[in-house]
Amino acid sequence: xxxxxxxxxxxxVACRACPRLVAWREEVARTRRAAFADEEYWGRPVPGxxxxxxxxxxxxxxxxxxxxxxxxxxxxxxxxGDFLFAALHRAGFANQPTSVAADDGLELRDCWIxxxxxxxxxxxxxxxxxxxxxxxxxxxxxxxxxxxxxxxxLGAFGWDGALRLLAARGHPTPxxxxxxxxxxxxxxxPYRLLGCFHPxxxxxxxxxxxxxxxxxxxARA
Length: 221
Fold this sequence. Notes:
Blueprint: H1 3-13, H2 19-31, E1 49-50, E2 56-60, H3 68-71, H4 79-90, E3 111-115, H5 128-143, E4 150-154, H6 155-168, E5 185-188, E6 191-196, H7 201-204, H8 211-220
Parallel strand pairs: 2-3, 2-4, 4-6
Antiparallel strand pairs: 1-3, 5-6
Helix pairs in contact: 4-8, 5-6
């Protein structure tokens, strides 16, 4: 990893710009879930993770309270991550199908994973103001991923955030505004956006998002 990207990650981890999110992430880390009562929670903003030479960037919503807010690595330690990393492994982007801890040996190839909001939000719902305060971190991060060309947007929030971050980088949103949907595609400047339903339990347990569906999107990516 480049020195500049490592410095960016350290700056992300130190951020305390959103009082509501700071209070919530730290409260969750203090009280903990019973299943993880003996673990030390991360309780800080979660930086991006992956291959600095990646052409594919996976864009999520925010860390899960007892997932990445616990483990310190994006999409690690929860059911959404279980589904996502299994798919990334099948597609050849990950060296293993599981992501349970920051030191579990997981490596990504040609893929970087990030989120529009870096702190776990109450009820998994960041406010527009929190999204806007956090967005510059992802704008800067994309500047430091020079080979990135495809953004795989998880859910409508990830899709909207990707359009906003590209606009902030000088690539205006096309008109009419591209609409999110599973399998949706849009070209914005030199980037291609791909839409995918978020791998939340609400989608994967109900069959709204199946393994075959995410495999198809990753094959296109």
